[in-house]
Design brief:
Elements (H helix, E strand, L loop, with lengths): L1 E3 L5 E8 L3 H12 L3 E5 L18 E3 L1 H9 L3 H7 L1 E3 L1 E5 L5 E5 L7 E4 L1 H13 L4 E4 L3 E5 L6 E4 L1
Parallel strand pairs: 2-3, 3-9
Antiparallel strand pairs: 1-2, 4-8, 5-8, 6-7, 10-11
Helix pairs in contact: 1-4, 2-3
Length: 153
């Protein structure tokens, strides 16, 4: 997408289609780098919805995920809400249980609420003045040559 500000200069706009975990995180990264960002999400704003549709299972947040959150200033907030998981439990056919650690002694991954993480990422993206959020916008068509996007509302 491009917005015409004058005939000689055009400001590039990054369109992010999808306001889930990846889309909201990418909107933060692009906005932080100074791009104008327009995020389009087919669902209503999950921060205001009475019922949130989507995946309900918790997310296992690894070191790499924590680094991404750290770059946008959310790591401490999300980690404080997480539950450490030090190992996975293997159940054999004879009933024996065997833990398999996720890393070395003292290392763990975090179980975090997926919906809450998504809400926090959307809120973080919205704090950038160069970000515009568009909910209830389902992408119908896109032209790679012109950048024209068609949405159903």
């Amino acid at each position: 997408m491009e917005r015409s500000t004058s005939r000689q200069s055009r400001k590039k706009v990054v369109a992010v289609v999808g306001g889930g975990l990846v889309g909201a995180l990418n909107a933060c990264f692009f906005a932080k780098r100074g791009f104008d960002v327009e995020l389009f999400e087919s669902r209503e704003d999950i921060r205001r919805a009475k019922i949130v549709k989507g995946r309900s299972i918790n997310l296992a947040l690894s070191h790499r995920g924590r680094q991404a959150l750290k770059h946008i200033g959310l790591e401490e907030k999300i980690v404080a809400q997480g539950i450490p998981m030090h190992a996975r439990m293997i159940h054999s056919l004879n009933g024996k249980q065997s833990p398999i650690p996720y890393g070395r002694k003292g290392q763990y991954i975090l179980s975090v609420d997926r919906a809450n993480l998504n809400k926090e990422l959307l809120t973080a993206a919205e704090t950038y003045p160069n970000t515009k959020m568009n909910f209830d916008h389902k992408l119908q068509d896109w032209n790679a040559e012109t950048g024209l996007m068609t949405f159903a509302r």
